């Protein structure tokens, strides 16, 4: 496994993943996908990391899509290749960590799907989003046809996917695909500030919030409210809750332990 194509480092409670294939506009290949799967498996066992930031090397591309040459070479096994990628992005989406995409250029096809698998998307002004697969006679397969309409609505999702054209960062913000747009030079500063704020909050509570939101999205409101109550009950009984309440009353900074 070539680890140089997917860089990983930790700085306290924040982990950074850099898709490092700049000459190929950070296009995803099987090696990189396997590395992402490995990283997120390891992170599930790491109680110290609370937030994960994913970005692309350079300033031209976050991820410009999947490696088209690799898809061509897969031949009759293309569906198997795509199914594996879908499973890996589902692993990221279901991670107990808060995952932030710092989108610094092209986020196309599989790159946009990876961004959508993250919890929060912050984009630089030069970011461009889209699903050009239809121009190749293909379609999104890493979850894009399901995740995009859930984020921006059915009509807009069809507009983006059927046209195969790119949309700007500001259009993506208006559609609800990204949460914030900032200058290219300040992207990582904005992301680091947000990651730092999130990382000071109770990790047990963050995990429960994410679980409640994700689980509740695909069920009725009545069932979703029961999901929320289940997660709240876990949080209410946690040591972090006791510590947070005590710290508030004692006017001190809480020392959360994620349990």
How would you characterize the overall build of this protein?
The protein is of the alpha/beta class. It folds into two domains: 3-199, 2-enoyl-CoA Hydratase, Chain A, domain 1; 203-249, Lyase 2-enoyl-coa Hydratase, Chain  A, domain 2 (Orthogonal Bundle). Helices cover 48% and strands 17% of the residues. It is built from eleven helices and ten strands. It has helices at 30-43, 68-74, 78-93, 110-117, 144-152, 154-163, 169-175, 187-199, 203-216, 221-236, 239-249, and strands at 6-11, 14-19, 51-56, 61-63, 98-103, 106-108, 120-124, 128-130, 167-168, 180-182. The protein has a six-stranded mixed sheet, with helices on both faces. Strands 4-6-8-9 form a four-stranded mixed sheet. The chain is globular, with a radius of gyration of 19 Å. The protein starts with 5 loop residues before the first strand and ends in a 10-residue tail after the last helix. The mean pLDDT is 94.
